Amino acid sequence: MDTTSTIIFIIAAFSLGGIILMQRNNIPASLRRGMAIAAIVFIAFAFFLVVYSLTTMGS
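^ Signal transduction histidine kinase, sequence as received from the core. Prediction below:
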C-alpha cells in the first residue's frame, strides 16, 4: 500500500492546527470558528488514519 498521500495529509493537518494555534490573534473573528472546526475535523481524521495504519501494519 502506498502511504505517501496519507503521510502528506497527516503532516498538513497537524501543520494547519499548529498554524491556527500560533496565529489565532491574527485571524479575523469571522473566520476563526470555521477554521478551528475544520482543523479539528482534519486532525481527528489524521489521527484515525494513524491508528488505522498501525492496526493494519502486519496485514
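The chain has one domain: 3-57.
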